[in-house]
Predict the structure.
Amino acid sequence: MDATNHLDSQNANQCDFTLRKARQFSALLSALNEAREYAEDLSCSNWDFAIKLSDAFVMNVCENDVRWMLRKGWIECRPSTGSGGNMRTINAVTLTASDSIVLGIDGLRALQRLTSEPASQIEHEACEPIVHHHKPCWNAERHELTYEGAVVKRYRWPAINQERILQVFEEESWPARIDDPLPV
């Protein structure tokens, strides 16, 4: 087997794996999509209808599944404001069962492929490279902005306006733009 055939075989195996995982997690992805639709219907943040990580575990999703879906961009996670209880470290972030998850853009794509397209089309598209849209995370309690688990900004002194802007971006799930949240 030459290098080209080996790569083709490897890509096919990855496509089969991704498709199998999309089917395995379809109940969770569907629940997250329904939550997204609720938020969209009410014109509010997806985080207002986020699903607790403990509920995902009830849907036969384990810790490694969550790790994989986070890295694939299928889900996004926001740590709860409280602490304690069954803590897990995933992607350099410590998670608890009370943390919240929402559907990521790539999770929505995977779900759409499962529900609306013929199997041959699903298998073909599963092989296409997907650009991940990772988002920062603002932790108001720690006054830290992180990106992919790394601290990129830590406020040691109050920065009320900057922190207010970061809080609004976090609440709105990091849209491309926000209305000015600062007082006149």
Remarks:
- The longest strand covers residues 150-154.
- Residues 3-24 form the longest helix (22 residues).
- Residues 3-7, 83-87, 119-132 have pLDDT under 50 and may be disordered.
